[in-house]
Amino acid sequence: MEEKIAFKNLHSREYQGHKKKVHSVAWNCTGTKLASGSVDQTARVWHIEPHGHGKAKDIELKGHTDSVDQLCWDPKHADLIATASGDKTVRLWDARSGKCSQQAELSGENINITYKPDGTHIAVGNRDDELTILDVRKFKPIHRRKFSYEVNEIAWNMTGDMFFLTTGNGTVEVLAYPLLRPVDTLMAHTAGCYCIAIDPTGRYFAVGSADSLVSLWDISEMLCVRTFTKLEWPVRTISFNYTGDYIASASEDLFIDISNVHTGRTVHQIPCRAAMNSVEWNPKYNLLAYAGDDKNKYSADEGVFRIFGFESS
């Protein structure tokens, strides 16, 4: 049974700490900590009270020498986080100490990173359309593949036996894992596909495209079920809420769209002041973290992110 949320009664809170714009926000598996990665070459980990008013304590993860473009948490461990940077390294951190425990030197500027749902492997995509798979225990590459087309966001399915690449050709390439053997090419959009999200119930995945549409796909049939049409600019980032009933999508439009997955209808729009880089729902609560290119009145980066879904501001 789908839950009804009174979105109009919910508020956003702002979190300051970064010196430059925030590229990526991600929740840990218990939904108690949020990590933010920034152009200021750091990541930060914030302890978020879902209902409390506690001041958000944060810890800084320092060591990268270029922008921290994307980060993701270990799906099985609430305190381990992986960061991908333009400095060609991928780093693994302990969020309790703020210390880097592992580091891998890769061949290019890393822009996408994702964990296999069982926590054993990490996939990293770079600006040269090269995919690297790391074994998390040894923190060494076990697989490298260069593609002849633009590769954007990447994702495993819930069971970890399928791997998805979104491409600049408007397709989603479906590969069997671990052999990375091509299984299917989905003609998903009329322009490049930028982002992908897997629904937590494992029924669907969603793809956001430069054609400003979000498409929803049935994973077992590999068929498009519906499209979400509210945004007018290229879709940069999408996320399903923890029940799989709602999807958030964002772009250069000055709002984040929240739509009902089952009907395709918009249920709420969160106004924002800039193009968004990252939206992510909490895995346990209806809290949506979001970050973008916000500038202050002196046209310098604000370096903030926000969380929507609190009952009082």
Automatic annotation (TrEMBL):
Q: Which GO terms describe its cellular component?
A: THO complex part of transcription export complex
PROSITE patterns (UniProt xref): WD_REPEATS_1, WD_REPEATS_2, WD_REPEATS_REGION
Could you state one GO biological process linked to this protein? mRNA export from nucleus
**WD-type repeats, residues:** 15-49, 61-103, 186-227
Q: Name one Pfam family in it.
A: Beta-prop_THOC3
Nucleotide-binding: is it a keyword of this entry?
A: no
Instruction: Write down the InterPro entries for this protein, in alphabetical order.
Output: Tex1/THOC3 (IPR040132), WD40/YVTN_repeat-like_dom_sf (IPR015943), WD40_PAC1 (IPR020472), WD40_repeat_CS (IPR019775), WD40_repeat_dom_sf (IPR036322), WD40_rpt (IPR001680)
Protein family membership: Belongs to the THOC3 family.
Check the record and name the PANTHER family matching this protein: THO COMPLEX SUBUNIT 3 (PTHR22839:SF0), THO COMPLEX SUBUNIT 3 THO3 (PTHR22839)
| Name of the featured protein | Anaphase-promoting complex subunit 4 WD40 domain-containing protein
* Organism field: Gossypium davidsonii
